[in-house]
User: Fold this.
Amino acid sequence: MCGNEALAEAAILAGCDAYFGYPITPQNEITAYMSRRMAEEGRVFVQSESELAAINMVFGAAATGKRTMTSSSSPGISLMQEGMSYLAGAELPAVVVNVMRGGPGLGNIAPSQGDYFQATRGGGHGDYRHIVLGPSSVQELADCMPLAFDLADQYRITVMVLADGILGQMMEPVTLEPKPRRSLPAKDWALTGMKDRKQNIVRSLWLAEGALEELNYRFEAKHREIQDNEVRLEEYRLEDAEIVIVAYGIVARIARAAVDRAREQGIAVGMIRPITLWPFPTAQVSAAAETFRMFLTVEMSCGQMIEDVRLAVEGRCPVLLHGRPGGGVPMVDEILDKIRQLTIRSGAV
Amino acid sequence: MKTVFKRTPVLKDCPTHYCPGCGHGIAHRLLAEVIEELDIQDRAIGIAPVGCAVLAYNYIDVDMIEVAHGRAPAVATGMKRTNPDKIIFSYQGDGDLASIGGNEILHAAHRGEQLTVIFINNAVFGMTGGQMAPTTTLGQVTATTPGGRNATGEGYPLQVSELLALLPGTTYVERCALSSAARIKQAKKAMKHAFQLQMDGAPGLSLVEILSPCPTYWRMSPAKAMKWIDEQMSKAFPIGRLKG
Assistant:
């Protein structure tokens, strides 16, 4: 199965009640797959008139307590930012998949990680965060979906699954099975009609003096709780590393091979692979900066995640970049060359 | 003593934030009465617009949501498709529905969504200070048409209801007004019909446009504003049933 189809089926297994989406490359397999499978399951599929409409259909379905999602690629995700800000303001659970392509503008349809800033900084207006998952294989992409729905329901927050054109299109064997849900809070806030209870209102407008400030502090507390409990990462061959690569998504797959090749050549390299991009594994990267000499972030951009690495390292070690923007994909040899240059420059072996 | 008038329990017992002479209060009451009479308070879900009626949920006692400017028909689609047993309605002004939300209403209608849309047309953006709306009449002075709306450069009053009535996806479209007791009664009848169609599972979208006074930004007395609807506004927006 390709990544796009795998994540779609995984969403169905995770109990997604409704999918809303608009065609855009390289994620069209999701919309096509959902149009067929959701009908088979007797669930809801709507091809919306725009990404703006898709995210607002998600907003509507989520407000009634349903598990719902949309997917798109970079330019479409930009259009959804208004809705994502409202989802944050109204504290509605939703899942959004971004199969990133090159940008800015219409860019191209090649894989990219150029939306890291948009994804991890909120993207829309206002003081908010959402959870961002960065899987690095088709299996992990599929496994992200039940997790994303659970996290969304648990924290009443949007969860973005940040993939890219390679992950979406790549075919790999994948095991799909229903996963048990977390113990989740009741959706007593949902709009279901006032049968036997008082009115429920879903809103994001708070005009009274101090009301919005108080709400934002409550969001902040929720964000801290997520930072404390939901950080996910993989550490690879870190034990005695002189150089730590930080990479996520498909790039981490490539970087892993570069780490192995460097180790074969006697260079002590390891890798930290953030799986949650927000919350970023700041504490783990910070701890690594106490022990290791140098960081190299590898990204399909001119350097976006590197800012989070630098914030965690706090100037204690050099943090360098190997970035390929605009659809460029870093190859194993390129990363290896970069590692060799660093060892020569620093004298590290 | 015989009760001749009482507040419907679907309308909350509180003062509104609307200006004196504003039509929203009347439209809210009609809507609330219709919800009571059809006995759907326990399964109606309403969508408030961005604009003067953004706080409609403070007055109308049903489950409600406040959504981004113009997006109500998309939100309503998400709600109705996942909850076909609920009665979903949006309450939108002309800035919300005819300007920024033009695409959402067009496509919700085009898809034939089973929704009830109450479209309040007062020919201006009220909330933001009386700027030109797509429905502003020619020659009408607003905050952004100080010389009066000129068709050249500022366009003509947009007849959204006529446009939507052309689509196979709409089942019922009627334009009403709040300018007299008789017209108010007709507006209520139209709203009730628009809800009844959804309750009956009629295919397609029902829309009731209501010409509603905005004395503050028309710079008129409430009484004169009512007259202006009949004498001027209804020339650009003919009152009557357009479809269904």
